[in-house]
Amino acid sequence: MEAVKPSAVTPSKSKWVWVRALSKVLHLEAAAAGIVPDDGAVDHKVKLKETEEWNDFQTTKRLSQKFDRLHDEELERRVAVEALIAKIFATVSAIKAGYAQLQHSQSPYDAEGIQAADQLIIYDFKKLSELKQCFLKKQYDDPSPEHAMLLADIQEQKSLSKRFEIMGRKLESQLRFQESEIIFLQEKLDESDKQNRLLEKRLNQSGQLLVLDNLHRSSLSPSHFITVHRQAVKSIRSFVRQMIDEMRSADWDIDTAASSIEQGVVYGKAYDKCFAFESFICREMFNPFHHPYFSLLGNSVAEGKKHPQVFFERFMELKSMKVKEYLAMKPKSTFAKFCRTKYLQAVHPKMESSFFGNLSIKEMVSSYQFPTDTSFFILFAEMAKQIWLLHCLAFAFEPEASIFQIPKGCRFSKVYMESVAEEAFHLSNIAPQPEPRVAFTVVPGFRIGKTVIQCQVYLSPIGNKVTC
User: Fold this and answer.
1) In 347-415, which residue ranges form alpha helices assigned H by DSSP?
2) Exposure winner among 82, 193, 293, 387, fewest CB in 10 A?
């Protein structure tokens, strides 16, 4: 066996140099990276780092606990403030309820209620003052603020309910008072209506226009004519009502009868059809109003009979008498002729026959025998009297009063017209018209000098061309 050479086992000198250089380089890098090659130094460094981390954790924990305590204290303070504010609002609501009770107890007067409400208000004001001091001094020492807030809310709701209850009692009291006042006013209205009916009955029975007593022709004015005109219109409507009642009793078709008088008219209400009958009666009774004595004496009337003073004397004579007495006393007078002529014109034989089953009234009137024991003829005679008085008074003026009526289709004018039914042209199922139109004249109008007594017309949304 060959002997091992020393150079094969032991490294050469140059190789050791290289190893020491490499080791030195590694030590430098380790030092730069903070690595201590010494084992004891490394352990010390690790322990120091763990101690610092533990200290940081403890500090963070203490800060978190302190923040939580501060947060809880702020939350408790806020809840306590909200509880105090809830108490304040509940107390204010209680004061309002106390004032409502105080006001309610004053009318009608309730001494015990007033005293109790006053004591309650004083107690609530003292409580409100205490709450104010607590708020200013920041004394939020309520042991259970949530419970206090709930109680305050319950108290506020109770006070609110009490206020509504008092308001309800007050409204009930006002309602009872209004109902009693309505009953009282209704009784007064019924009494007034009763008195008016008695006066109207006396006026119709006596035939006297009391406001025209002691009248002289020299003192005539349009106001006197207006008074007689109103009475005439009232008597016309009384007779028309009686005539329509007789038609209903005789099973007449009111709609057909109204359409035969005024054709193509749209009525706002079913009741408005009565104006067609009133228009018919007025046409018959006022024609020819503008001729002296309604042309009953012919065209050759003596000048003396046409003098205004003569008409005024006839007016005063008939005004002061009952119509039954006058017809019985002067059955062949000019007024009696007027009454006979107009009855035969206005009341058709078929109408009278359907009303009464015979023509006895017409036969008696034709022979100047006036049946003053029947209500139908008495209403007609009273109407005829008022129209005759209006005619005589019209010719007592110098110049005499003139009559006029409005043609169908004319525009409405408040100067010369008065609508008997204002809502006649406001119909829901008909397109609104730009202007109301005259469907027919109900009661003619009059002129006395510069004074105009409006013509009473019925307005309807008719599609006729404008004629005036």
Assistant:
1) 349-356, 360-366, 375-396
2) 193
Output the pLDDT for position 143: 66
What's the mean pLDDT when you consider all of the chain?
Answer: 79
In the structure encoding, which two tokens stand for residue 7, read together? 């150079």
Q: Is 12 helix (H, G, I), strand (E, B) or coil?
A: coil
CA–CA separation, 289 vs 293, rounded Å? 8
82: its two tokens: 């909200």
* SS3 sequence of 210-275: HHHCCCCHHHCCHHHHHHHHHHHHHHHHHHHHHHHHHHHHCCCCHHHHHHHHCCCCCCCCHHHHHH
- Is 403 in contact with 461 (CB distance < 8 Å)? no
Cβ neighbours for 272, distance < 8 A, ≥ 6 positions apart: 421, 424, 458
Q: pLDDT tens digit string along 198-209?
A: 776 665 554 445
Nearest to 131 by CA among 184, 168, 95: 95
Judged against a pLDDT cut of 70, whether residue 229 lies above it is answered with yes
Q: Do the beta carbons of residue 334 and residue 296 sit within 8 Å?
A: yes
> Whole-angstrom Cα distance, residue 366 to residue 342?
11
pLDDT given for residue 388 in this prediction = 95
Q: What is the pLDDT of residues 55-92, one digit of tens each?
A: 666 666 666 665 556 566 677 777 777 777 888 888 88
- Cα distance from N-terminal residue to C-terminal residue, the chain: 163
Comparing CA positions, the residue from 333, 336, 338, 347 lying closest to residue 291 is 338
Amino acid at 388: W
Alpha carbons 220 and 312: distance in angstroms, whole number: 10
Residue 181 scores a pLDDT above 60 = yes
